């Protein structure tokens, strides 16, 4: 690399260093990595990573490159990313995974982000009349939120039954067996969000 080009890149790194620390920290947390784990994977000392995240040092280009490799992201993205940088990801209907109930009448399109699946899951639920989705208990402390967009749902949790109509939302503990049924004559459409124990306990 020509000296002039290298100097320009290094100067650019200094300019973005104010955002660089936040970017590294955000990416590290997105991968659920501790400082020690990122240090081990990148070969950059834990103390240096900590200083970078607190914007107490201006890292060399080599250090930024090693961190970007460990975080599986291009160095250009690390240098360019900031709090105001847009994040846009689009999935087609065909690319959106879906689950189907045993009776074939209920479809759960998984519209949640795979990176949040351990603590937050959300779905687009559609059910034909008479369709039922039976679920085992999720981990203790989990909460499910069902917002009905059209139709009418019946939720059964531990023997308690509640009806939910279009425009209404029902929140309930899902750490016990529960059933969602289409209780009306028309197709049911709802958004379902499951907040797992880690988020509930936070």
Automatic annotation (TrEMBL):
SUPFAM superfamilies: lambda repressor-like DNA-binding domains, RmlC-like cupins. The keyword Transcription applies. Residues 24-78 form the HTH cro/C1-type domain. It comes from the Bacteria. Keywords: DNA-binding, Transcription, Transcription regulation. CDD domains: cupin_XRE_C, HTH_XRE. PANTHER family: HTH-TYPE TRANSCRIPTIONAL REGULATOR, HTH-TYPE TRANSCRIPTIONAL REGULATOR SUTR. This is Helix-turn-helix domain-containing protein.
